[in-house]
User: Fold these one by one.
Assistant:
Number 1:
Amino acid sequence: MSMQDNSVFEERLEEEILKLKKCQEEKQLKSCSLCEHYIGCETRRAYVQAVYDSMSKGETGGFEF
């Protein structure tokens, strides 16, 4: 996998982090776990998926640390 491919995952993760932080700021929360929409939240789900994709670089299975 090339560095360019890796940067796609990192860019997506940064985008999802910004969306998550914006949502928390709008709701005046410091953590998603304090939100009434915690379970089933699409913003949080997209963030978690971006974290997973960033760690696995799009591969299924193990992670590169």
Number 2:
Amino acid sequence: MKKVELTLPEIALIAGTRGLLGAGIGLLLADKLKDDQRKAVGWTLFIIGAISTIPLAIQVMGKRK
């Protein structure tokens, strides 16, 4: 098994991006907002979460031992 050592700020960034991604998906599936508002906010959060995950994933993969 490979181990990865992460700092607390790195873990917080990973959790934050996962949260944005989850919130975006939740809004896309929810019926609480008007359809156009829900889609705009949902897609924005989803895209920010997905895009911000890429550099973090590269960084974590680079720390594998």
